[in-house]
Amino acid sequence: MKKRILVTGGAGFLGSHLCKRLLDEGNEVICVDNFFTGDKKNIEALISNPYFEVIRHDVTFPLYVEVDEIYNLACPASPPHYQFDPVQTTKTSVVGAINMLGLAKRCKAKILQASTSEVYGDPEVHPQPESYKGSVSTTGIRACYDEGKRCAETLFFDYYRQHGVDIKVMRIFNTYGPNMNPYDGRVVSNFIVQALKGEDITMYGDGSQTRSFCYVDDLIEGMIRLMNSRDGFTGPVNIGNPGEFTMIELAEKIIELTGSKSKITFQPLPQDDPLQRQPDITLAKKELGWEPRIKLEEGLKHAIAYFKSVI
Ligand code: NAD
Ligand code: UDP
Predict the structure, then answer these.
(1) Pocket lining: 17 vs ligand 2, CB cutoff 6 Å
(2) Fold for domain 4-177+216-241+278-293?
(3) What is the pLDDT of residues 283-293, one digit of tens each?
(4) Which atom of ligand 1 is least distant from the CA of 118?
(5) pLDDT at residue 1 is higher than 90
(6) Mind telling me the catalytic residues?
(7) DSSP letters of the chain?
(8) Tens digit of pLDDT for each residue in 235-282?
(9) Gap between the Cα atoms of 196 and 16, Å rounded
């Protein structure tokens, strides 16, 4: 049956892939975005579909539409972008969650929250299971994002307990692929663009910090499986690729795959930058039958081809 689905942040990196996938599956999609970090080019190919609708709107203001499902992705995700206007970042996560949960309550719609591995902060438990409560600074430069997302999770669970809203909470780990903004400052886009242009690769800190990178197609599959998971399964659930790499390993792999002559240069590590990160995906495997399929090298090849075409 055709569902009417709202995707907030639908013109962003993940949102644009999600809109396409939902349309391909025969649904009607309403994409809401204020275009802070999103790009109309990401959704250009979808515009001709009569079941696709775009609304320029900021989720910190109420929205009145009638929908069956809501994927709440609106929020800048790259540190330089979310730190550009930190007050607006917290408002987007917190007030945006209240508005979208209110909409879900009125429409009796199911609602999925794009939460983040950042709720674990700079983790003392490794890898991170969902039961780990996190180690997050409330006052640092990442707090606008981390605490905003943590409060959004609280709101989701309170709307669930207090109002019976059907919620699904997904903790997304670092994801990459086509439609990422080449200049958004995240590590995969920075390193690939620098390597392709023959510029210095900007390594923050000594490069021994780790991240685990998930290719976007795997991530979107996990997101859709979570939305369609059994009644009463709320999460939170980690979705990410457990393959863990140091930033030095990532830079070397990108230099090799692009055949670049770029050299690595070292810059100070930003405040509160997590030293390690790897998802424990036991719960996603059990509840969603999900695990990632695309290895870093294969995913990077797709991402490199994309960045080559846009820079
Ligand atoms: P993105 O910056 O590409 O997309 C975010 C989208 O939200 C953009 O289109 C932006 O214009 C829009 N937006 C921002 N503030 C808004 C507002 N107030 N009202 C309406 N629209 C607004 O980032 P992304 O990587 O696609 O991330 C999407 C979601 O997934 C975010 O909520 C992010 O926190 C979460 N997430 C992403 C990652 C990742 O690695 N990509 C990891 C963890 C969590
Ligand atoms: N990073 C880096 N050089 C860059 C951009 C990022 O060394 O040009 C590092 C950053 O300090 C962090 C890691 O790469 O340790 C991942 O950064 P990103 O901003 O992509 O995501 P997050 O820190 O939110 O996981």
Answers:
(1) no
(2) Rossmann fold (3.40.50)
(3) 999 999 999 99
(4) 43
(5) no
(6) 145
(7) ---EEEEETTTSHHHHHHHHHHHHTT-EEEEEE--SS--HHHHGGGTT-TTEEEEE--TTS------SEEEE--S--SHHHHTTSHHHHHHHHHHHHHHHHHHHHHHT-EEEEEEEGGGGBS-SSSSBPTT---B--SSSTTHHHHHHHHHHHHHHHHHHHHH---EEEEEE--EE-TTS-TTS--HHHHHHHHHHHTPPEEEETTS--EEE-EEHHHHHHHHHHHHTSPTT----EEES---EEEHHHHHHHHHHHHT----EEEEPPPTT--S---B--HHHHHHH-------HHHHHHHHHHHHHHH-
(8) 999 999 999 999 999 999 999 999 999 999 999 999 999 999 999 999
(9) 24
**Residue 127, CA distances (Å) to 101, 143, 190, 222 in order:** 31, 21, 25, 19
Pair 169, 113: CB distance under 8 Å: yes
- The 10s digit of each residue's pLDDT in 189-222 is 999 999 999 999 999 999 999 999 999 999 999 9
Q: How many CA atoms within 13 Å lie on the side-chain side of 223?
A: 30
Residue of 76, 64, 75 lying closest to 100 (CA atoms): 64
Name the pTM for this structure: 0.98
Domain boundaries along the sequence of the chain: 4-177+216-241+278-293
Please give the structure tokens belonging to residue 101: 């949960």
Q: What is the pLDDT of residue 54?
A: 98
| Centre of ligand 1 from the C-alpha of residue 263, in Å | 31
Could you tell me the pLDDT band of residue 44, with boundaries at 50, 70 and 90? Answer: very high
Is 187 near ligand 1, meaning CB less than 6 Å away?
no
- Ligand 2 pocket member 225 (CB < 6 A): no
Question: Using 50, 70 and 90 to split pLDDT, how confident is the model at 40?
Answer: very high
Tokens representing 154?
């609280």
